[in-house]
Design a protein that fits this description.
Blueprint: E1 2-7, H1 18-24, H2 33-50, E2 54-60, H3 62-68, E3 75-80, E4 98-103, E5 108-113, E6 121-128, E7 131-137, H4 142-156, E8 161-167, H5 178-184, E9 186-188, E10 207-212, E11 219-222, E12 233-236
Parallel strand pairs: 1-2, 7-8
Antiparallel strand pairs: 1-12, 2-4, 3-4, 5-6, 6-7, 8-10, 9-10, 11-12
Helix pairs in contact: 4-5
C-alpha cells in the first residue's frame, strides 16, 4: 500500500523561497483561480505518476479535492480543519480551509476534533483490522502541539499497528515527538532524512511518517515536485 501526504498551501503556488514570497506575496490574501487550477493540475500529474492508494491533504479546499477525482480516485472526504463550534468556520478567509483525503477504494474512517488548538481535525482511516492511519496538521505553538500529540496518542492506542502522517510543525526537533513515539512504540521513518520545508530550499523536517516499529516499510521518499511550500512525502508498506 502506498500513502502520500502533502500540505498543499491552498494551491497558491509559492515554494517558500524569499524570491517567490516577495514576488507573489498578494497570493496569501487573494489568489486567482488560474493559479490554483495550475497547481492542482500539477498535483494530478504527480498522482498519475506515483499512483498512491491514499492521498492525504492538509491546507486544501473542497473544490481542489473534487477536481482530483476520477475513475482511479472515487472515494474521498473533505472537512474544515477547525473545531465544530469554532467561529473560524464562519469567517471569510478561513471557512473554506480544510483537510481531506482521496482513496482508490472505500475506507472505514472517522473524523476526530482535538480539544486543543485551532486546527483540530484528525482523520483516522482503518487500513486493516489491526492497522490504523492517522493524519493531521498540528499547531504552530509548541505547548499546544504537546497537548495535541498527547490527545492523538490516546486515539491511536486501539490499534496494534499505527501510521501517523502530517505536517507536525516540530520547530524544536524530533524531541517533541518522544512521548508519542515511546507510548505507541513508533519510529520516525527516515529520521534525519531529507527535509521538506520550504520546498525551494528545504531546511526543516516538518512532514513525517511515524510507524509502528514492527511494520515492514518498503520505501519512503520525499518527492522533488514543488507543488507548495512543502514537499510531498510517500510511504509504501
Amino acid at each position: 500500500m502506498k500513502i502520500m501526504f502533502l500540505n498543499l498551501q491552498y494551491a497558491i503556488g509559492i515554494n517558500g523561497s524569499w524570491r517567490k514570497i516577495l514576488r507573489h506575496f498578494p497570493r496569501y490574501f487573494y489568489c486567482g483561480a488560474k493559479v490554483r487550477k495550475n497547481v492542482c493540475s500539477d498535483l494530478k500529474k504527480v498522482l498519475v505518476r506515483e499512483q498512491p492508494d491514499v492521498l492525504c491533504l492538509v491546507e486544501t479546499y473542497a473544490d481542489h479535492v473534487r477536481g482530483l477525482l476520477d475513475e482511479n480516485y472515487t472515494f474521498y472526504d473533505v472537512e474544515s480543519k477547525y473545531g465544530i463550534k469554532s467561529f473560524l468556520r464562519k469567517m471569510p478567509g478561513f471557512r473554506r480551509r480544510s483537510n481531506a483525503f482521496l482513496a482508490r477504494k472505500d475506507l472505514d474512517f472517522q473524523k476526530h476534533f482535538l480539544k486543543n488548538g485551532a486546527k483540530k481535525l484528525i482523520y483516522e482511516m482503518k487500513i486493516s483490522e489491526d492497522t490504523g492511519l492517522f493524519m493531521g496538521h498540528f499547531s504552530l505553538f509548541k505547548n499546544i502541539r504537546k497537548r495535541q500529540f498527547t490527545e492523538l496518542t490516546e486515539l491511536a492506542r486501539k490499534y496494534k499497528k499505527v501510521i501517523i502522517c502530517g505536517d507536525f510543525n516540530i520547530f524544536s526537533g524530533y524531541k517533541e515527538l518522544e512521548f508519542m513515539l515511546e507510548s505507541l512504540d513508533l519510529t520516525i521513518v527516515e529520521r534525519g532524512g531529507r527535509k521538506t520545508f520550504p520546498s525551494g530550499n528545504p531546511r526543516l523536517h516538518l512532514d513525517l511518517f511515524l510507524c509502528s516499529r514492527d511494520m515492514e516499510i518498503k520505501e519512503m521518499r520525499v518527492l522533488e515536485d514543488q507543488l507548495s511550500d512543502h514537499l510531498s512525502i510517500i510511504l509504501e508498506i
